[in-house]
Every structure is written in structure tokens, then in C-alpha cells.
Amino acid sequence: MRILIATAGSRGDVAPYTGLGAELRRAGYDVALATTDAFAPLVREAGLEFRTLPADTRAPGGVRGRRDLMRTAAAFINELGQGFADAVADGTDLLLLSTTTAPLGWHLTEATGIPSLGVYLQPSAPTRDFPPVVTGSRSLSGPGNRAVGRFALRMADRVYEQAARELRHRLQLPPLSASAMRGRQERANWPVLYGFSTALVPRPTDWRPGLEVVGTWWPHVDAADRLPPDLEDFLAAGPRPVLVGFGSMAVGDGERLSEIAVRALRRAGLRGILQAGSAGLAADGDDVLTIGDVPHALLFPRLAAVVHHAGAGSSAAALRAGVPTVTVPVTADQPFWAGRLASIGAATDPIPFRSLTAERLADALDRVVKQQTYTRAAATAAHHMATEDGAGQTLKAIQQSAGER
Questions:
Q1: What is d(CA 388, CA 398) in angstroms, rounded to the nearest whole number?
Q2: Tens of pLDDT along 239-288?
Q3: CB–CB of 98/120 below 8 Å?
Q4: Does residue 223 lie within any of the structural domains?
Q5: Residue 90 sits in the same domain as residue 187
Q6: Would you give the end-to-end CA distance of the chain in angstroms?
Q7: What is the mean pLDDT of residues 323-347?
Q8: Which domain holds residue 327?
Q9: Are residues 148 and 294 in the same domain?
Q10: CATH number of the domain that 21 lies in?
């Protein structure tokens, strides 16, 4: 069977699928991963075929509020839709579609007859249990949460409307709105597998059939991968340090964030590692080291704590390592994951990005490092996550859908 995984967005939207794809490849499938050009090396390092999707994934520094986010997302989706059909080569037997690519992929499955399956990183379906992850709003009553969840999907459909219209024209399909297509998929109980842990989000009981939480898909890490020598030396030179990193967020804020991080670390009496990321964090000193991208799976278990933006991947990696966190959510789904970490006791209350100061960060670090309740909560979640096998469960679902044993 030839499987195409399609995803787009930041590194956190792509990396988990490299691990999923590698697991499917080991099971004997021919696997390609379609995403934007920036992540071609990531895909090929996992031993997967790379196919290009057109779009600029660089996060603009000015994106902060929801209006900016919606405008940027619409431009991104329109660009993505221009060449989405080109990634689906003849002979593809199954499409695995992410949250970002599914509203486009549905039209491709209609045109080609290729079956598809959702592989989502965030809980997207409306539920009484919590409000939609992208709104950052507080939980309402059960009916209120579901109502806001349905509204969020309508807003998402607006983002995809133009791209879907142009894609259907190219595929010679009759007109159909993005919302009508979504409704068609919902009525058909289109299957979606959610790649996060039930330690953070148990499956809502009011979800329709076909929506399942299978466990986290971990980014591919080669068995031969090692941490850089200078990082190994720093880790060995003293007590466990704290990592501070914002991933693909906070472009243009590197100087301010670096100063805040160093002041907070020294105020709390902690050694620190700054992960440059898109913000360009950097600092020098015997008690601070600046690094680039390294596998979370290799570094996080050796830390005292992690300060991060609460992306889905960073949040899961910290829990997997049993390490407590301080979250500084910036936008999109990050406030949701930050709230989830705090709710299980593995993180302090989130510090909103705009409210971040050295004093607030130092106080939070002092608590997560010295108060063992945070570490115990993270360790409990890590034990739970060790019982899950997201890639293995996805493999079983694919085999069952194809009638394999």
C-alpha cells in the first residue's frame, strides 16, 4: 500500500508525522510525506519520500491576536491550495490528512476516489468538555462549549472557502462550499485519529463515532543521534539546567526574550540552556548555553524544567520526560495546552506572552524546580504516556480499514 501523509504549518505541525511515517514504513508500507520545502530534510532523515506543498511557513513577527491569525491563516491556505493536487501522485492508495490539509484533501478524495483518514494533532470536534482549542477562551457550560466549538468550525470554513473553490474548479468538480463539505464528512462519520495523550485530553464522551484518541506520535529520532559535544559538556558541568525555547514563535523578540530568560535564571539560581528557535534566542556565560535544534527525546529527560510556548509537541515531550514546565503561550492552540498542563499539576499557571517579565518567570521557575508536586505530576503523566502507542494504534486502524491482518 502506498500512503501519503499531508501536513503543513510550523515544525511542530510536521515533526510528529515523521515518526508516524517511519513506523508505517517499518510495517512494510511505501510512505511519502507532503509538506512545505523547509521541512524536506526532516522528512528525508526519517527515510520517507518528500513531496512539496506550496506555502510560506515562516511565522510573521506581528501575528499576535486572533484577527491577525485568521488573516495570516487564510493567506497561507490560499497559497497551499494552489498546488495541493500536485502532491497526490498516481498510485496513492491512502491519504492521511492533518487538521490543516483535511479541508482541502476531502475534495481530492472526491475527485480521485482515494480513501482518506484524519490524523490530527489537536482536538477539533465540538464537545461539552472544553471550548475549541484555537479560541483561547475559558471553559463555558457544556452547551456553551459545544456552541463555541461549532462557531469555530464555521470560522475555519471561511478560511478555506476560496482555496476550496479554486481547487474544486481545477479538479472539475461541481461547486460545493467548505462548510457543506465538512457537513458531508461529519454525516459520513469520516474517521479521525487524534495523536495526543489521554493524560492531557481524555476522549470526550459526546464525540461522534469515528473520532478516536490514540496517543502521541513522536518525531523520528535516529538510533545513532547524539547531543552535540558542547551540550554534553554543559550538562555534565553542574546541576540539571532549565531549557528556555519558543520554537517557531516570537519572531523578532529574541533580544528581549533572551534578556528576560537570563535575568530570570540567575534570579532563581539556575543554569540555563537557550534554544535559539525562530526568535533567535542567544546568550553567553558560564551558566548559560545557546543551542540550535536538538531532539527533545534526548535532551528533555536531563533537564530540571522546561520553559516553552506550550505547543502540542513541546508540551507532550516535556510530559514524556517527566519534567515540569513553565508555559508562555503566544497564540493559536498554545493557551489550551498550557491550561491542560497546569490542570494536571505538571506546570505552573500559564504566563501570557505579553505579560512575561524576568520576575514572573523567576518566581515560576523557583516553584517548579523546588516544589516536588510539579515533578511528581509530570512523572505520573509520563507513566501514563508510556502505556500508549500512537503510531501502533494508527497502524492497526489502517490495517483494519484495508481489511489486512
A1: 17
A2: 999 999 998 888 889 999 999 999 999 999 999 999 999 899 999 889 99
A3: yes
A4: no
A5: yes
A6: 14
A7: 94
A8: 229-386
A9: no
A10: 3.40.50.2000
